[in-house]
């Protein structure tokens, strides 16, 4: 058995419960002063406040003093402690980078212009197809370490830079291996329909296709994904969730419905990349099919919002992508008012958000979405945890949950939302063990 005692916590702030928090509950956090957390074998056993010490603590302290290395005592020095952060939407497995797109962006090319010209996602697809599996694993492991240093203890990762069976399964195997070998929990999402692969297109590389040519190619690819790839991913347990990029010039409403219905039939949880650039019905579909989350939502319309509220769909909002694309910001404040649970994530990827800094996302959620600090904390802990199926294990600090804990160089969550571009994480703990200090 290994034990952990964190004492002298100035303020312990956490949402409570294993469910998504919506409406007023989004801003409800438990705040304990002068608190301690005691954990055994990575699970929280007791939390105390007002200077009280957990019952087992005396024994733990004596063991630590006597040199028992299975027992660790950390003095939080009066600082803020929260649950470890949960990044519920990333594309962190990829070959290459896309810094060469910057001059195109500066000359006014949009995200979809670059994709239509055979660049963007398709550029990363070329590099990911070429990459060796171990190389991809090592590169992504480095990203996870950096995320850990920023307070992130749980991550979702999507495939989608292969678009062919071989590379998609390679990416998913890398994600599974990261979950098994790295400290963080890593949840896997299949995003085969992220773009139409070149081999399904009727035109050559770089040639512009007509809308009819695009539709035929996308239809054929969706049929292939539904018949070949989804069943394989299920059978080999390579992913828990299925996602699709529902967007103008990518996959339309009908193609998305066909794919998501098949995924649902096979037992996947559903996620949708929806309303990032144009509202073509992605969030409406998410609500109709009971998706776990609809993600991006910059351009969501009233119909989409109502469908999400009705279907109990979590809004996975990605403000650092809005920042990088110089686009608008999702109406997260309105979502909370409509009773939609709001989660915020990085969307870390080489094209639309080359940052894995969830602390920056917290700054943006407060400043651009106008979320209160308590609402922001819920949006980066329990709400994304529920949207990736881990709400009963992580996302809050409570007896019975994993000891995934962040001690901050800050006195309160307001400070986390206020200072930006400095790493305010002091000590990061995963399952009762120090991940970063
Ligand atoms: O979520 N929008 C689609 N997919 C990613 C970007 C992928 C890329 O540009 O490489 C996103 O923003
Ligand atoms: Fe994304």
Structure commentary:
- By secondary structure, the chain is of the alpha/beta class.
- It has 16 helices and 17 strands.
- It has 2 domains: 3-83 and 397-436, Roll (Urease, subunit C, domain 1), CATH 2.30.40.10; 85-387, TIM Barrel (Alpha-Beta Barrel), CATH 3.20.20.
- The strands form 2 sheets. Strands 6, 7, 8, 9, 10, 11, 12, 13 and 14 form a 9-stranded parallel sheet that branches. Strands 1, 2, 3, 4, 5, 15, 16 and 17 form an 8-stranded mixed sheet that branches.
- A hairpin with a 2-residue loop joins strand 16 (425-430) and strand 17.
- Helix 5 (133-149) crosses helix 6 and helix 7 (211-235) runs parallel beside helix 8 (253-266).
- The mean pLDDT is 95.
- The structure holds N-(iminomethyl)-L-glutamic acid (NIG) and fe (iii) ion.
- Fe (iii) ion binds next to loops.
- N-(iminomethyl)-L-glutamic acid (NIG) is lined by residues 91, 120-121, 124, 245, 273, 276, 321, 347, 349-352.
List its salient traits.
437 residues, alpha/beta, Urease, subunit C, domain 1, TIM Barrel, 2 domains, nine-stranded parallel β-sheet, eight-stranded mixed β-sheet, 16 helices, 17 strands, binds N-(iminomethyl)-L-glutamic acid, binds fe (iii) ion
CATH architecture of the largest domain: Alpha-Beta Barrel
Q: How many structurally independent domains? A: 2
Instruction: Fill in the CATH topology of the largest domain.
Output: TIM Barrel
Q: Please count the beta strands (DSSP E, at least 2 residues each).
A: 17
Helix content: 25-40%
């Amino acid at each position: 058995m290994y034990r952990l005692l964190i004492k002298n916590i100035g303020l312990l702030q956490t949402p409570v419960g294993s469910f998504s928090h919506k409406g007023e509950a989004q801003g409800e956090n438990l705040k304990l002063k002068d608190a301690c957390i005691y954990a055994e074998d990575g699970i929280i056993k007791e939390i105390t406040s007002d200077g009280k010490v957990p019952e087992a603590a005396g024994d733990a302290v004596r063991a630590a003093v006597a040199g028992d290395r299975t027992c660790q005592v950390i003095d939080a020095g009066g600082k803020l402690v929260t649950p470890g952060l949960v990044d519920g939407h990333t594309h962190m497995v990829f070959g290459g980078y896309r810094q060469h797109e910057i001059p195109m962006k500066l000359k006014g090319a949009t995200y979809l212009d670059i994709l239509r010209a055979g660049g963007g996602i398709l550029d990363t697809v070329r590099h990911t197809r070429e990459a060796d599996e171990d190389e991809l694993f090592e590169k992504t492991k480095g990203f996870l370490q950096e995320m850990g240093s920023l307070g992130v203890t749980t991550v979702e990762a999507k495939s989608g830079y292969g678009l062919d069976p071989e590379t998609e399964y390679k990416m998913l195997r890398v994600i599974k291996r990261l979950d098994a070998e790295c400290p963080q929990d890593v949840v896997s999402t299949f995003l085969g329909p992220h773009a139409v692969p070149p081999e399904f297109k009727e035109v050559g590389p770089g040639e512009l296709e007509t809308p009819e040519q695009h539709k035929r190619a996308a239809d054929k690819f969706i049929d292939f994904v539904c018949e070949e790839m989804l069943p394989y991913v299920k059978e080999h347990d390579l992913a828990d969730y299925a996602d699709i990029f529902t967007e103008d010039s990518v996959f339309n409403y009908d193609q998305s419905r066909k794919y998501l219905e098949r995924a649902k039939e096979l037992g996947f949880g559903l996620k949708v990349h929806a309303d990032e650039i144009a509202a073509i019905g992605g969030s409406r579909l998410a609500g109709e099919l009971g998706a776990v989350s609809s993600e991006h939502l910059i351009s969501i319309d009233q119909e989409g919002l109502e469908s999400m509220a009705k279907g109990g769909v979590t809004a996975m909002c990605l403000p650092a992508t809005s920042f990088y694309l110089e686009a608008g910001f999702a109406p997260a404040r309105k979502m909370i008012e409509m009773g939609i649970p709001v989660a915020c994530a990085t969307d870390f990827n080489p094209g639309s958000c080359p940052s894995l800094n969830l602390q920056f996302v917290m700054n943006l959620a407060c400043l651009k979405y106008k979320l209160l600090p308590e609402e922001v904390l819920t949006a980066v802990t329990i709400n994304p945890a529920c949207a990736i199926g881990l709400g009963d294990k992580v996302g809050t600090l409570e007896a019975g949950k994993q000891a995934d804990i962040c001690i901050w160089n800050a006195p309160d969550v307001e400070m986390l939302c206020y200072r930006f571009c400095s790493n305010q994480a002091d000590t990061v703990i995963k399952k009762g063990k120090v991940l970063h200090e």
